[in-house]
Design brief:
heterodimer; A: about 400 residues; alpha/beta; Peroxisomal Thiolase, Chain A, domain 1; 2 domains; nine-stranded mixed beta sheet; two-stranded antiparallel ribbon; about 35% helix; B: about 475 residues; alpha+beta; five-stranded antiparallel beta sheet; 12 helices; about 30% strand
Chain lengths: ~400, ~475
Amino acid sequence: MASGIKDKVAIIGMGCTAFGEHWDKGPEDLIVDAFEQALADSGVARSDIQAAWMGNALDDINVGNSALPLAHALRLKTIPVSRVENMCATGTEALRAAVYAVAAGAVDFALALGVEKLKDTGYGGLPLRTKGLANDLWLPYGSAPGSFAQLAGAYTAKHRLNGDDLKRAMAHVSWKSHQNAAKNPRAHLRKAVDMDTILKAPMIADPLGLYDCCGVSDGAACAIVTTPDIARGLGVANPVTVKAVQLSASHGWEMSYGAWDGSYVLNTREAARRAYAEAGVKEARKELSLTEVHDCFSITELVTMEDLGLSDEGCAPADILAGRYDSDGTQPCQIDGGLKCFGHPVGASGLRMAFEIYTQLLGRAGERQLVAPRLGLTHNLGGAPFNSVAAVSIFGRLH
Amino acid sequence: MRGVARVGVYAPLLRLDCAAAARALKFSGLAGRRDGYRAVGGWDEDAFTFAVEAARGGAAALDTLIFASTSAPFFERLHATLAVDALGLPRETRTRDVAGSRRCAVSALLDALLARGSALIAAGERRPARPGAAAHLAQGDGGAAAWVADEAPARFIGWASLSYDLVDTYASREHPEPYPAEERFVKEGAAAHVLVPTIRRALESAGLSGGDIHHVAAPEPVAGLWRDISRAMKISAPNHASEISAKLGDLGAAHALFAFALATARAKPGERILLTGFGSGCDALVFETTGSMPGAELAEAALNEGALLADYVRFLSLNGALDLDWGVRSEFEQKAQATVLDRYGRDTLGFIGGRDCAGNVQFPKSRIPVRPDADGPEAMQDVRLADEPARIVSVTADRLNYTPDPPFWFGLAQFNNGARVMMEFTDADARGFSVGDRVAMRLRIKSHDRRRGFRTYFWKAAPAERPTLGG
């Protein structure tokens, strides 16, 4: 009988580069920067790392395929190194692999590193690629904002909302993240923006305006994991441990079976349900101190609040506008600025979320530090609402 | 008695107001046509899609399918074969393309009438022309079709043909845009040497005189030509081709069949129709109607439905006459693989999904159905979705992605038979698309690989009803 991952793995070191437009850095620089931070934080030696997983989503435009870019950049000498990719959930996939390796007893120390170099494409937004395969014969070449904007229309129709009311709630999501990122030295977009500017921004994919969309950034984030026993041996008596790592992937139901109403993300709900069970979370609204969710677009964060069970169905707009998820609300979301403003180097984002929870749990978040956080949740979403991979992880201290 | 058993027409949504074009061209003195309308295809339409749209709704099987056009997208790849797949017809259907002259569709129809077996002639036209050329505004985009069978409401009662190299216009590989001869020469020569003698022989073959004709479908190579012919032949019947020229433009190879469809819509039983095809000679055919013509009702609707286009620059862009720099986002790879087309091309072009053992319909088909309680491979029965009504579940107007006619509309379509497909939307009107809207499927260009000169086709969701022009 599976017993889950709770408290079987400790995070003893993390690193995260500033996210942004790193015109002066290649992916190898970002890898080294994130790793050196994590290594210094962990107190272990480079040679202690016994296995590594690199998360990188868009191999054809930046880092390169296989795990060799990681092995080369860090000169990892003949240890097993693998590359994982699961669209925007890639960073969490790398962490999941490392955590499972340690939990299985296969290795004592494992490395998970996510990296993406998006700003070498020559334009904003994510690249569009087709390879002449079967899906290219019929699937629309929709952009990421176009795919997520679909949520808004369906959500509005389902809950009989006025589109302007939803737009205001979405704007508040972005306003809040800009406020938070202004206090985060690693964030890509460190500028507070007023509601009026957000609401009047140029339209990208109806009803998502420019400020409803997250930053497209370069960056890397990294974690070194081991067992709680080994962590104690290293002098970390009460380490941050992994309480749950759960993943749910579409099998085509949303896109090809006529039951989904288009207004929520099934995989987020499934991954959250399993993560709460794995972590022993009974009342997420009370037990989770903070969340870092996949706010690739404001509408995604809004819907995710319901999919995680933090807002009742149809009530996320009101909860958001009431400030519940603001930095001074009862359950802050994106205290680091989120994808929206910290930035979204795709393969790194899941680990960046974990980095913020780790930092908050250890009381190292400086100006944006929350008071005595106990449990933090990350939600990493790949693909599109109609065809997605959702990862939900929960982190806390061992004791 | 053998004849035309069904007709079909298709006109694209947009109608350029030629007065708007004349205003934009006023400085140049090249305005050309200053009144009337020109049917304008969307960026994702071509001669093939027009022909297929016109040819929908016919029998489930045919002996022969002929595609007719002077502006077919491929030199080497048979459009008639693609049309067999797009229309869901059996692969055993004989296929061929005809071209070389605007009369190719009428010539193919004549051949089919003189042959045996059932046939479909599907014509489409989207001819290039340079801004400023008279043809740029005189031409229109569209398609038309005719089905031939042994039992038909338009009985074939007479015909004549003439081969005559009167170069009223030409287009070549080196000069793809039509190059016209002097109008006065064409007007005199076409009437005296080509049309009048051929029509006279056709009427004689039917044992008729000009006064016995009630409707005419005779495209005019130059405006006013029919007036001269009608005087010479003493035919007082209306020429429906002229009305199409005014409302849609000159539809090239599709024009005569479109006009014939309109004539059958307006003809009473027992009335006679003269159909001519002109270009490098002439074919003249005479029909007598015996009852209502299936598909003819669409011809009247096609003339009166649509959306006005007064933006001359958008017209130039849609028509390929203005090559805008769409930026780096338009540089993505669109190569189609022959092996993939071999495996999935027919189901994609025909929009063929599958019905699983529990009755659920899905697209595309899969070894293991998407149905939640399916737990292993199942045999699937083919289900065509192209003709199935649908509603919108989710939608957006994507302004980030490249499309030659922004915005890029796409979303989830829920078909009445239970299938659900994430797909592109097309033919948006000023209101756009919303959740719950009813949509119908239209065959369109899916990808256009300009570097390699290749294109793939798939179906897109369009509003179920078209607006009335000026409404």
